[in-house]
Write a structure and sequence with these properties.
- The chain has 459 residues and is α/β, with parallel strands linked by helices.
- The protein folds into two domains: 168 residues, Aspartate Aminotransferase, domain 1; 254 residues, Aspartate Aminotransferase, domain 2 (3-Layer(aba) Sandwich).
- It contains 16 helices and twelve strands.
- The strands form three sheets. The protein has a seven-stranded mixed sheet, sandwiched between helices. It has a three-stranded antiparallel sheet with strand order 9-12-11.
- Helix 6 links the parallel strand 3 and strand 4.
- Helix 4 runs parallel beside helix 11 and helix 14 crosses helix 15.
- The longest helix has 28 residues.
- The protein is globular and about 60 Å long.
- The relative contact order is 0.15.
- Belongs to the class-I pyridoxal-phosphate-dependent aminotransferase family.
- Keywords: Aminotransferase, Pyridoxal phosphate, Transferase.
- It holds the Pfam family Aminotran_1_2.
Length: 459
């Protein structure tokens, strides 16, 4: 065949099979369309009201005021600084800050930390370091949707979903479900489970794991020699629940870091790891600063050090994050006000669910979410047979009303019709979101005329 014979040319795919798979999954994600057409009261009234992405807008003004007066960048932040795993200054500031708030048994040192451009990158690093392609990572349902691509797209780990049926996933008895999932996966695939990913506080259920449950999970991980990863990105977004007082509501549980529990007799210290970042507790998703904490596994940190070249934190973000975390007075005040605002904002949305007779997972006291059963309300109001895919049907209605929520299918919900509402927004924005949600499910919105009166609490 001559090189000029184009008629005989075999057309090959322009991307790999794995890239094509991810491309298809990305195209199916409505979130990317939402980002290009966001609601703005002044400039884009018909844009998407986005209460589906976990961002905290309640303290942006406070944080921006601080950054404007502390953003004088030293020259060495225009260099590669101390390397891809974060500056010595940021590691020192983060370790001191987290020692105060997570209260680890063994005080954190800078050498225990690796800094990444967000916790998603940190999760990807750990999935890559702990698993070979096809090996498993246990993940309880429902779960944060982005954990799946974080652990599977490039690391090629296999997420092993853990179902709880009617068992409270925060109870000590939940360990039996993790064990069943591990044994079933290993028997079915012949591959090992290598880790358990714990979202603590939980996304999307907004609750903290009791100390006794974490202890039993540690024992379980020790028994099967698997890593326990405690994602504590919402550790300081814990607040008072003032509205969920009905009998049977799970009592609030104080946040206890996995690092604050002595490992002796429970789990090998080199199997315990934690994650934290600036995105949630400081409402700074755009800074892209995450932290891997591993106090007793230098082999892990050495393995990740090379790949941190791909998760380098920008010099500006490194400097700003260091400045924030070094200032104890500012961070203490910020956290206190943020927790109060989260409590009040949750109260507004939870009472709206009560007043409109919409089922939700009561008992939250952490993070930014309300887990709501819109499918049940939709069927009640529309008086139609149950669709083959109830979640998709409701999602289509929400999109048609120009409001975006995270759907339960993407979050591994065991039951159809559930969605996650992010409540960490100013009151007028939440009011607009709730109005559109109610319109999508055929529910008259009772707060339309006087949202300030409906809240029963002021932000």
């Amino acid at each position: 065949m001559s090189s000029g014979d184009s008629s005989a040319t075999v057309r090959l795919a322009t991307v790999s099979n794995r890239a094509a798979k991810v491309s298809k999954e990305t195209a199916a994600n409505k979130m990317w369309d939402v980002f290009t057409d966001l609601y703005d009261a002044a400039t884009n009234e018909n844009g998407f009201v986005n209460v589906g992405v976990a961002e905290n807008f309640l303290m942006h003004g406070t944080l921006l005021d601080y950054i404007r007066t502390h953003a004088d960048l030293p020259p060495h932040y225009l260099t590669y600084n101390d390397g891809g795993d974060g500056s010595r200054r940021l590691k020192t500031a983060a370790s001191r800050f987290l020692n105060r708030h997570l209260k680890p048994v063994v005080p954190l040192k800078p050498e225990h930390l690796m800094v990444t451009n967000g916790v998603s990158a940190a999760i990807e690093h750990l999935a890559w370091a702990f698993t070979d392609p096809g090996e498993g990572i246990l993940l309880g349902r429902p779960h944060y949707g982005a954990l799946l691509p974080d652990m599977t797209s490039r690391p090629e780990a296999e997420v092993v979903p853990v179902s709880f049926d009617d068992l409270d996933p925060f109870e000590v008895r939940c360990v039996t479900k993790y064990e069943r999932a591990l044994l079933d996966f290993e028997a079915r695939t012949g591959k090992r489970v290598r880790a358990l990913m714990l979202c603590h506080p939980h996304n999307p259920l907004g609750r903290c794991y009791p100390r006794e449950t974490i202890i039993e999970l540690m024992k379980f991980c020790q028994r099967y020699q698997i890593h326990l990863i405690s994602d504590e990105i919402y550790a300081l977004s814990v607040w008072e629940n003032t509205v969920d007082t009905a009998p049977g509501t799970p009592p609030p549980v104080k946040f206890v870091s996995a690092l604050s529990i002595p490992t002796q007799g429970l789990i090998d210290a080199n199997l315990l790891h934690a994650l934290w970042g600036m995105s949630k507790d400081f409402g700074a998703n755009g800074l892209r600063v995450g932290v891997i904490i591993s106090q007793s596994n230098p082999e892990l940190l050495a393995a990740i050090k090379g790949p941190t070249l791909y998760s380098y934190v920008s010099g500006l973000s490194d400097h700003i994050a260091s400045s924030i975390l070094e200032n104890e007075g500012f961070t203490d005040r910020y956290i206190t006000v943020n927790q109060r605002k989260l409590s009040e904002s949750y109260a507004f949305v939870a009472r709206a669910m009560q007043d409109h007779d919409i089922e939700y997972a009561a008992g939250c006291n952490a993070s930014f979410f309300v887990w709501v059963n819109l499918g049940k309300a939709y069927l009640r109001n529309k008086q139609i047979p149950i669709p083959a895919d109830l979640t998709r049907t409701v999602m289509d209605e929400l999109i048609s009303k120009r409001v975006f929520l995270a759907d339960g299918t993407a979050f591994g919900s065991e039951k159809p019709g559930w969605f996650r509402i992010v409540f960490s927004h100013p009151r007028p924005f939440l009011d607009k979101a709730l109005g559109r949600i109610m319109a999508a499910i055929g529910e008259p919105y009772k707060y339309a005329s006087k949202p300030e009166c409906s809240a029963r609490a002021k932000l």
